[in-house]
Specification:
Rossmann fold; nine-stranded mixed β-sheet; three-stranded mixed β-sheet; 11 helices; binds nicotinamide-adenine-dinucleotide; binds uridine-diphosphate-N-acetylglucosamine
């Protein structure tokens, strides 16, 4: 058991990581400014972990031990970071760094905001880690680094060639982490390159809750299924893929969360190192595959319209998951049907997400 700081722990991926890491026996401090999330997500994380507490914590287990704490604050602010590193008497043994901005289109319109949060926030966090003697970090990187991939499935050795400011900011943080690892012995760093995280905890109590019109396929389709949107627009039906629609590697968010647990276990067990691994299933599914799987889960037809390709999209991105299997002893266990069943459990029980 370790005491962990989870930045962005109220977000989609962070909240699911919290559930998996609590289950693995860790004590957690979450630092989040709720820029793109709700405190309700953390309250539900505590509930799923069988913990008791006030609306904003701290949350305790049945023996009275504090297992989950919230520090409401900004990862760019040294004082907020100091509060997060000192709130637990045991200190912080390792960090899972999920806080960041992630909307590709927004990053094109507001690059400075993206660089400030994604790179600036990571720099401030690494400085705070040095101040507090913590040298272990798992970073939320992205398959967006591979841009238009030259080979599929994509190995970690593929060229880093991001095509938008969001991707550039992730590539920059990966570089900073490599430089930090090279600068001083003792750093334990995992750069986890997520493919397409989707679905929700099987309880349907936590899930993805995007603001406004979703940019990504899975939340958009979920909102069509629950009647919040009329029809899905499928971006392109003339891609060089089996059915003409785009192919992606969709990974159940609980498999992804388990990948963080596995990465932390590996980092804490082995000698200090810089680990870089894809988190994906190695399986590609087309947009139409996802539509049909979701129809089976929700029990009704989902209207869609075939429209032009979306600028910036690739035909196919699928992970080579071999390294994660070899180094982390981790692989995905949940299918596309599981993803849709659990995603529907969340969306149908929470048609407006965490909102009223
Ligand atoms: P999310 O927006 O749901 O979660 C991010 C969390 O960070 C939110 O709770 C938000 O409030 C918080 N946050 C943002 N700025 C902050 C700041 N300055 N200080 C403190 N907290 C801040 O996004 P997510 O889908 O959970 O993504 C988590 C991480 O994974 C991000 O770094 C994202 O770039 C990366 N990632 C996500 C995907 C994906 O498809 N969801 C894919 C690849 C990589
Ligand atoms: C997007 C991001 C990528 C990020 C990834 C994380 C863009 C351009 N890329 O990737 O940087 O790392 O999310 O999960 O935003 N689709 C539709 N209709 C829709 C939405 C999507 O047909 O309304 C199609 C897309 O064309 C694509 C597939 O569905 O073929 C998946 O799209 P999406 O969920 O947006 O993910 P990515 O494009 O893979």
């Amino acid at each position: 058991m370790a005491h962990l700081l989870i930045t962005g722990g109220a977000g989609f991926i962070g909240s699911h990581c919290c559930v998996a890491l609590l289950e693995a026996g860790h004590g957690l401090v979450v630092l989040d400014n709720f820029d793109n999330s709700s405190p309700e997500a953390l309250r539900r994380v505590a509930e799923l972990g069988g913990l008791q507490g006030e609306a904003r914590g701290p949350w305790r287990d049945g023996h009275g031990a504090v297992r989950l704490q919230l520090v409401e604050g900004d990862v760019r602010c040294a004082d907020d970071l100091d509060a997060a590193f000192t709130t637990s008497p045991e200190g912080i043994g390792a960090v899972v760094h999920c806080a960041g901005l992630k909307a590709v289109g927004e990053s094109v319109a507001e690059p400075l905001r993206y660089w400030d949060t994604n790179l600036g926030g990571s720099l401030r966090l690494l400085e705070a880690m040095r101040r507090h003697g913590c040298r272990t970090i798992v970073f939320s990187s992205s398959a967006t680094l591979y841009g238009y991939p030259d080979t599929v499935p994509i190995p970690e050795t593929a060229p880093i060639q991001p095509i938008n400011p969001y991707g550039h900011s992730k590539a920059a943080v990966e570089q900073v982490l490599a430089d930090v690892a090279a600068s001083e012995a003792g750093w334990r760093i995992a750069r986890l390159r997520y493919f397409n995280p989707v679905g929700s905890h099987p309880s349907g109590r936590i899930g993805e809750d995007p603001e406004g019109i979703p940019n990504n396929l899975f939340p958009y389709l979920s909102q069509v299924a629950v009647g919040r949107r009329q029809a899905l627009h499928i971006f392109g039906s003339d891609w060089p893929t089996p059915d003409g629609t785009g192919v992606r590697d969709y990974i159940h968010v609980m498999d992804l969360a388990d990948g963080h647990r596995a990465a932390l276990d590996t980092l804490l067990r082995e000698e200090p190192q810089l680990l870089t691994v894809n988190l994906g299933s190695g399986q590609g599914h087309s947009v139409l595959d996802v539509v049909h799987a979701f129809e089976a889960a929700c029990g009704h037809r989902l209207p869609y319209e075939l429209v032009d390709r979306r600028p910036g999209d690739a035909a196919t991105t699928v992970a080579d998951p071999g390294l994660a299997s070899a180094r982390l002893d981790w692989r995905t266990r949940r299918s596309l049907a599981d993803i849709c069943r659990d995603g529907w459990a969340w969306q149908s029980a929470n048609p407006r997400g965490y909102g009223p």
